[in-house]
Design brief:
The protein is α/β, with parallel strands linked by helices. The chain has helices at about 25-30, 50, 70-80, 95-100, 120-130, 140-145, 150-155, 190-195, 215-220, 240-250; strands at about 10-15, 35, 40-45, 65, 90-95, 115, 135-140, 160-170, 180-185, 205-210, 225-230. The strands form two sheets. It has a six-stranded mixed beta sheet. The chain starts with 9 loop residues before the first strand and ends with a helix.
């Protein structure tokens, strides 16, 4: 990791701005920095034909795993495309209460069997294991389908990952330059989008904040430098990692 001595004034988060009150607002005020949001990737639905190529029968599964609202949107959207009726007996396993409540947009909420975890898939697995007889379907993107989830693999549950949407690079043509002190990435697709949209990108004094080992690998494979890593022992979240880095960087250069 190379030490870059420039004071942090501007940050670009390569994701949509959080709904409601953003936790980054406090970070902006605390360090007097400017934080902007711009999604470097977006979700794209797949056609019914593309889904059928996976040879997966939705109705052969009596339980659904939901890890996001977007996954839920695409699951019920695919049901409509395939002209399938949502069975009354289906059980729904959601990683959080917020995602569970989102089911109200698609089904009579009070009449269904709905189970929730505590924000993570790992926390949901013990709940699912109480229903070992169930056949689970896991609606997901192409990226998630190709990644192995060790907790789910070790659970002994009968589940099928079903790709129902894909993650694609966004067109950033209106973003005239990429001159920020810190660029924050949460996935390899974000890094890919940067290089597709800005093929002449030179990192120089720009610091890259990366979340997770797969994002880190993408940065390194493309000959770039990662300056801020999350999660780590001192910072379990990107917000905390940025806070600690900016505090140290700006303290030395006031």
């Amino acid at each position: 990791m190379v030490e870059v001595k420039k004071k942090v004034k501007t940050i670009l988060i390569t994701q949509p701005k959080p709904e409601g009150k953003s936790p980054y607002v406090a970070l902006e005020k605390k360090h007097k920095v400017k934080i902007e949001f711009r999604p470097f990737m977006h979700l794209k639905e797949i056609s019914a034909m593309e889904f059928k190529e996976q040879r997966i029968s939705i109705l052969n599964h009596d339980a659904v795993i939901f890890t996001s609202k977007k996954a839920m949107d695409h699951y019920f959207g695919m049901m409509e495309k395939l002209r399938l009726r949502v069975p009354d007996f289906t059980k729904y396993f959601c990683v959080s209460e917020a995602i569970a409540h989102y089911l109200q947009n698609f089904i009579p909420f009070r009449k269904r069997k709905i189970f929730t975890g505590e924000q993570t898939l790992a926390s949901l697995i013990p709940v699912m294991q109480k229903h070992k007889e169930a056949k689970f379907i896991f609606p997901c993107s192409d990226l998630l389908k190709n990644n192995i989830n060790t907790s789910l693999e070790a659970s002994g549950l009968d589940y099928t990952k079903a790709q129902m949407y894909k993650v694609v690079c966004s067109n950033l043509v209106d973003l005239t330059d990429i001159k920020y002190d810190i660029l924050v990435f949460f996935s390899p697709t974000g890094v890919k989008s940067l290089l597709e949209n800005f093929p002449d990108f030179k990192q120089e004094e720009t610091r890259l904040a990366v979340f997770g080992p797969t994002t880190m690998k993408s940065v390194e494979d493309n000959g770039l430098r990662a300056d801020i890593l999350a999660p780590n022992k001192k910072a379990p979240s990107m917000l905390m990692a940025l806070d600690q880095y900016i505090k140290e960087a700006n303290k030395r250069r006031r």
